[in-house]
Amino acid sequence: MPSREEAKTVVHRLHALSGSAEIVRKAAARELARRDPLDANELLHEVIFLARGGWEPATCVLSAFVSALGREAASIPYADSMRRMAKVQSLESVADLFETAPAQKEFDEGAAAKADAKLLTQSLGHLKQQARLTRDPDLLARLVTASNPLVVRNALLNPRLTEPLVVRMAARRPARPEPLVEIWKSPRWSSRHGVRRALVFNPYLPPEVGVKIVPLLNANDLEELAGDSSVHSSLREQAQRLLAGGPATGSR
């Protein structure tokens, strides 16, 4: 089983990698893939503990690990059994990362499509191009309200997009889950504290994404989340367990 010292070695190695968030995420996936489910869960548990203790490299690497669980699961052997084994190991902080459930609230797909049709009348191809390339801030502000994830994905690549606008996108209600998931998948924006916070407090976010964001929050956010009845119960309970398990930095 990985010791805390071994976990620190892994954290140092991944944190020292140069390149994009994708490179670190794939390296984190390989680190899990080369272990059996029991060892992979123990490693995640130790990294969560180190991150909750306020060690910044562990916080950065934890972000890569939780992202890998969501986006690189196909490359991690036995990923499907990790949650079951985490429960057997009594590693609740790890088991929480595999929670799946319907969102607390849902926005009807047909209603979302009608809202898009009223607001955006051009072809999908034209909207995607506009979203990625427009220099008009007013047009960009309209495009990011789309429920179509392809339009949102391109808008997230627009160099003129600002963090306040992305926070509004992440907090928007009602919302379809797909655009919210696109924000979480964006390496440029999903690392921002304000964006993570807006996503996790949005009751339209699928819990399977929310549970991967919760361990990345600071203690103040966890305390607020633990008492927020508008979010899914799995997120509240996860926040409560993390608070009970140890300290975290007050802000980031």
Describe the secondary structure blueprint for this structure.
Layout: H1 4-15, H2 21-33, H3 37-52, H4 56-71, H5 79-88, H6 92-95, H7 109-119, H8 124-133, H9 137-143, H10 149-155, H11 163-171, H12 177-185, H13 193-200, H14 207-213, H15 219-226, H16 233-245
Helix pairs in contact: 1-3, 1-4, 2-4, 3-4, 3-5, 4-14, 8-10, 10-12, 11-13, 13-14, 15-16
Determine the N-to-C terminus distance.
31 Å
Report the structural category.
mainly alpha
Question: How many strands, what sense, and barrel or not for the largest sheet?
Answer: none
Number of E strands: 0
Supply Rg. Answer: 19 Å
Number of helices: 16
Q: Provide the succession of SSEs.
A: HHHHHHHHHHHHHHHH
Helical coverage, percent range: 55-70%
- Poorly predicted ranges: none
Strand content: under 5%
Shape: globular
Mean pLDDT: 94
Give an overview of the whole structure:
- By secondary structure, this protein is mainly alpha-helical.
- 63% of the residues lie in helices and 0% in strands.
- It has helices spanning 4-15, 21-33, 37-52, 56-71, 79-88, 92-95, 109-119, 124-133, 137-143, 149-155, 163-171, 177-185, 193-200, 207-213, 219-226, 233-245.
- Helix 3 (37-52) crosses helix 5, helix 4 runs antiparallel to helix 14 (207-213) and helix 13 runs antiparallel to helix 14 (207-213).
- The radius of gyration is 19 Å and the shape is globular.
- The mean pLDDT is 94.
